[in-house]
Amino acid sequence: MQALPVRVPSGSTYWTVLDDELRVVAEADAFLRELRFGRSRAVETTKSYAGGIVLYLRWCRDTRREWRTAACDLGLFMLWLKWNPGGDESVRVVVPGPGSKQVRRESRINKVLTSCGDFWCTR
Fold this sequence. Notes:
Elements: E1 2-7, E2 13-18, H1 26-38, H2 43-62, H3 74-83, H4 106-122
Antiparallel strand pairs: 1-2
């Protein structure tokens, strides 16, 4: 799962989300295109939102949740964001121990939740 910039024929750019087989995630792509061109948001906004959506979809994949209904486990997603590095080495269970350092600060977690919240509400 990854975010990737896309240049459209007009020369404008937006960011989209690719799955593990490098296919465009249609729902995320439609949302990000609408965000960029329908709501006139900046390219960097679609980049930030795409990154947040990637983290959410990766968490859903790693925990075997369906993304449309996984928002009911938002607290678990927040813990995962705080403690899981989220790279290719993602783990299904996050167990922070004594002396563990969180990998994302609350401000970043809030930005991810904002992007995911907008995504959930429009799909």
